[in-house]
Design brief:
By secondary structure, the chain is mostly helical. It has two domains: about 100 residues, Rna Polymerase Sigma Factor, Chain: A, CATH 1.10.1740.10; about 80 residues, Arc Repressor Mutant, subunit A. It is about 75% helix and about 0% strand. The chain contains nine helices and no strands. Helix 1 crosses helix 2, helix 2 packs across helix 3 and helix 2 packs across helix 4. The protein starts with a helix and ends with a helix.
Length: about 180
């Protein structure tokens, strides 16, 4: 409910709503941007990416849907900005994983990968929001278990156990599915 109110206030050009969102999501977005790249982005790059994410949010505030995840929207913006930053330095850094896969992978393999991603997304959609967030934080945003535990206010051991169980559940789900 709080998110819906913040989105409505943003749509009314309430700059205090933007400040509240910045206070709420800046640490998380910094973690996402910082963990995206190897070699890592500089602290200045991370700060600029997060700032630009909030600027984009402000410029597109009229397009926001109060019922959709604002956190997810901000993460996508930050991730895209981080990828753009890395691509702009293409000569200075290693290529992104996606670029390597596209260049070296035959079409048939890429189609199989897309199918695997589709099945994975279906599995993720069936999980509880808490379990989905845990998997995404660990595997997509490359957060360490200690950081996840701290941010979710659970023990690092609980994070590891839940990840173990979720991996087993995912494996069972993907292996049990018949090819289409």
């Amino acid at each position: 409910m709080e998110q819906e109110q913040l989105v409505r206030r943003l749509k009314q050009s309430d700059s205090k709503a933007l400040q509240e969102l910045m206070a709420l999501y800046t640490p998380y977005l910094c973690t996402v941007a910082a963990n995206l790249a190897v070699p890592p982005l500089t602290p200045q790059d991370v700060e600029e990416i997060v700032s630009d994410a909030f600027v984009r949010l402000w410029h597109h505030r009229q397009d926001l849907d109060p019922e959709r995840s604002l956190k997810g929207y901000l993460v996508r913006i930050a991730r895209n900005l981080a990828v753009d930053t890395l691509r702009s330095r293409k000569s200075d850094c290693l290529p992104l994983v996606e670029e390597i896969l596209e260049q070296e992978t035959p079409l048939e393999t890429r189609l199989e990968q897309k199918e695997a991603v589709r099945r994975l997304n279906e599995h993720l959609a069936a999980l509880s929001p808490e379990d989905r967030e845990l998997l995404l934080r660990f595997y997509y945003y490359n957060q360490r278990t200690a950081a996840i535990a701290r941010e979710l206010a659970i023990s690092p051991g609980a994070v590891r156990v839940r990840l173990f169980r979720l991996r087993a559940q995912l494996k069972k789900s993907l292996e049990g599915e018949e090819p289409q």
